[in-house]
Amino acid sequence: MNLDNLTNDQLARMGDCSSPEELMSLMESDGIELPDEALDAVAGGINPAAAIYQFVKRYLSDRLGK
How far is CA 64 from CA 9, 16, 41, 61, in A? Predict the structure, then answer.
């Protein structure tokens, strides 16, 4: 999945998440698959939820200025 294919509402809700667990729960409930880049971050050896959270926050900062 490419995060560029998500709706603005989905991106905004992801940006409002304040913890890795909250983000993972939202992604699961919305059926949002992890992009390959996020999976690569997980493979880096840190906490998977934290790695995905950091990846998504960087993406949203770049795309939405959040």
Answer: 12, 12, 21, 5
Half-sphere exposure of 4 (CA within 13 A, CB side): 4
Whether the CB-CB separation of 63 and 11 falls below 8 Å is answered with yes
Residue whose tokens read 């919305």: 30
21 three-state secondary structure = helix
Distances (CA, A) of 15 to 25, 40, 53: 13, 21, 10
**Of 52, 62, 54, whose CA–CA distance to 32 is shortest?**
52
pLDDT confidence bin for 48, thresholds 50/70/90? confident
Q: What is the pTM of this model?
A: 0.69
Ranges assigned E (strand) in 1-66? none
3-state secondary structure of 7: coil
Hey, what are 10's tokens?
A: 């989905």
